[in-house]
Design brief:
Elements (H helix, E strand, L loop, with lengths): L1 H6 L3 H6 L11 E2 L8 E5 L11 E5 L1 H14 L19 H15 L5 H15 L3 H8 L4 H12 L30
Antiparallel strand pairs: 1-2, 2-3
Length: 184
């Protein structure tokens, strides 16, 4: 769930994230770690819509959690995909859907993976992401698609933004979330 919220990836893109891609590079990009930046690489050959590859900045805590999952909890299997199910096989779309059903039963209201993508867009907008950065991170080809997310984002109240800072990266040029969006 944290990857869905923290990176705004689509269900198929979540299934396609790998420990190591076909090019030998990891999809958890730590090459800018010393600058305080961790990114997820969403590959065109691994579920990215329109085959548009991109890199999505994520909070360092999420990067650390992914590394911890790989080191401690991910079963030793021959698959390169990051998320492995209880049968030792990679999650696919239907597996992500099954996770959403289990989560929905636990919390008592409707949940779907794409809703987390909308949450990402909402919070990123309110944290001060500019439209080009958000469009690129979400993998949208044009601004019209992004506009639908942003328009809906401004109508949603997800609580204090400081509560979301551990989930979604604050743009480096912003530093501190804009106070005009924060509730006291």
């Amino acid at each position: 769930m944290r990857i869905l919220v923290g990176a705004g990836v689509r269900r198929a893109e979540l299934s396609g994230i790998a420990i190591q891609g076909p090019d030998g590079l990891p999809d958890l990009m730590l090459d800018s770690f010393d600058r305080g930046v961790v990114e997820l690489r969403i590959r065109g050959d691994a579920g990215a819509k329109g085959l548009r590859a991109r890199r999505v900045p994520i909070v360092m805590k999420l990067g650390a959690e992914v590394k911890c999952y790989v080191a401690r909890f991910r079963p030793e299997v021959d698959y390169l995909e990051l998320l492995i199910n209880e049968n030792g096989r990679p999650y696919r779309n239907w597996g992500v859907d099954a996770m959403m059903v289990r989560l929905q039963e636990a919390v008592g209201f409707r949940i779907h993976a794409h809703g987390f993508r909308h949450t990402f867009a909402t919070v990123a907008t309110q944290l001060g992401w500019n439209f080009e950065r958000l469009r690129s991170a979400m993998g949208h080809e044009d601004y019209m698609t992004l506009h639908r997310y942003v328009r809906l984002a401004m109508d949603r109240d997800l609580g204090p933004l400081e509560d979301w800072a551990e989930f979604i990266a604050i743009p480096p040029h912003v530093g501190v979330p804009p106070t005009r969006f924060m509730r006291r």
